[in-house]
Specification:
By secondary structure, the protein is α/β, with parallel strands linked by helices. It has 16 helices and twelve strands.
Length: about 400
Amino acid sequence: MTAFRKVLLADPVMVSHSLLYYEAALSSAGFEETHFTIAAATLNEADQSRAMEFCASRKNSTLRLLNVDPGPCGGRLECWRGFGRSMHAIERLLQNESFDLLAYVSLDHLLLNFARPGFPGRFPAHARIGTSGTLFRDNGLRPPVSQNIKGRLRNWMDFVILRRALANPALRQAAFLDHWCADRARQVFNSQKPAYGVDPVFALPCDPAAARAQFGLKRDDFAVLLFGVLSDRKGIVESLAMLRAAPLPADKTVIIVAGPAVPQISERLQAELDQMKRQYRVVRHDRFLQQSEMPLYFAAADCVVCIYRDFSGSSSVLLHSAIYGKPAVVSPGGAMEDAVRRYQFGEVAGIDAPAEGAKAIARIAALTASEREALARRARTYAEIMDAHRYMSQFV
């Protein structure tokens, strides 16, 4: 049984996926007798209500709303400032109450504070609990590959910040979602052993045959899924163009596009879908989909496309495709590529290489039944290490 009776789970800026991380922390193996105090800064009244409702429904949690305004948190500098304001509020909480463990939901924009000279003087309570505490993050740290001088300078500065932060004794342990980042962290500071992080996901059962029947899919149809909030960052328009260029059988290919589109791409997306409908059957569900609805889409699909723009983090879309043993085509340069290449359950293609992406999708469509089953086993192996019940347990 864990020695951590009281845990402070700090969320500097509550985002759409925060409740999933809270649930994973509270249900982690070995923390059954732990009481969690969730300290969160919210951006709006809706998030505040969601956090209050979450904690009110669970006996082992208490909510402390941080009386700070994180700000817009759009660019990197804005995020550093907003997260820093929250960190100061968490410092005051640590000074007034005692906890056995401090765990941050997100660490990336806090690293600058840990790297600053004189950290123990600025954050004495963090420094004290850091000797027995833990901090972790929910996204990969690897920056996008950059060819220009400004980008290379930024990447070099990120490396310097990471090196100084890991040298801080208050940062006892950190988790990184891709092995590349964890290996880099060990190279930076060898006496620490950063864990390979868990991006939590709860696996919900769903019968593939029944799911496919709901979409009207035949046994030999090839269903491609594009899922989530559709935006330029998700590369949705370019991905659809790749699918139109891929040598797929017109009478057996079904394109499922699920999720709301941001206004900035609505017209371009609709124009691309109109062209797509002349070639393949298209299923379009234009609305926000709840967590409980996700299994139906992933269980029905044969391939999931996650070719994002300048993206280095992880993705719940990739995690859900892995749960149901489905191959994925992902963008290069980050945690998604790391997962797909390490566990060999998909293809990697850049958004700026449409011919490469079209060929990757065609290779997945051409897999034999035995090849597809072997790939499914490898995908599920990846999903198992991301089981939400391991979220906090990775640090015990």
